[in-house]
Specification:
The chain is an all-alpha fold and 212 residues long. Helix content is 66%, strand content 0%.
Length: 212
Amino acid sequence: MCADAAWAARSAGHSVLALLSPQDVTAMDLDPITARTLAHLYLSALRFDFRGPTLQRLAEQLAETARQPLDCYTRALYAFALLGQSRPEGLAVMDEVLAEAGQHTKTLHVLLHGLWLGQDLDHGAERLLALSSRPALATGSDPIVLFRVAGALRRLGRYDEGLGAIDRAIDCLPPGDTSVHADLVRERSLLCTARDLHQHRPPTRTSSGVPS
């Protein structure tokens, strides 16, 4: 619910970040439900704004001051912050979250987002494809999952598969939905450009001068 609220505010040109402050999120006199709600709202808004370093610092501050261990979703947002910065320790946090998250779709989406953003992660594209195959995500009708899969396939040089995924993503959007349409079209352009560059790349030559 909090992720949806943060996204709806952003889509409408507003932001949770303008309504809350880090001090609101880290206040020590909050009951557990309010504290968790404020954390989910604020950290989700940071996620949608791609503010990884800020999200990381705030999540670490919460972990230091919280009266109980951080919940699974908050730790997923922390993993997103690390993964999005291509920090390898994010993979370990992700594995810990996955062991607890089961098939909770929103949690898996947070991790998928982090893998998509972390372009320099070791085997990041392969990890993204593996995560996207989990039953909660592998419905074949979620445009965001298909969008992130297309990006991973592009990074692996599997351009035609990526184009198939992005075309399905565009087809799965509700009529008139403009929230992510531009992102999908941009990814399609990137796939086409990458494929064309690959197809017209001159052959490399071996030390003997023979094309490989």
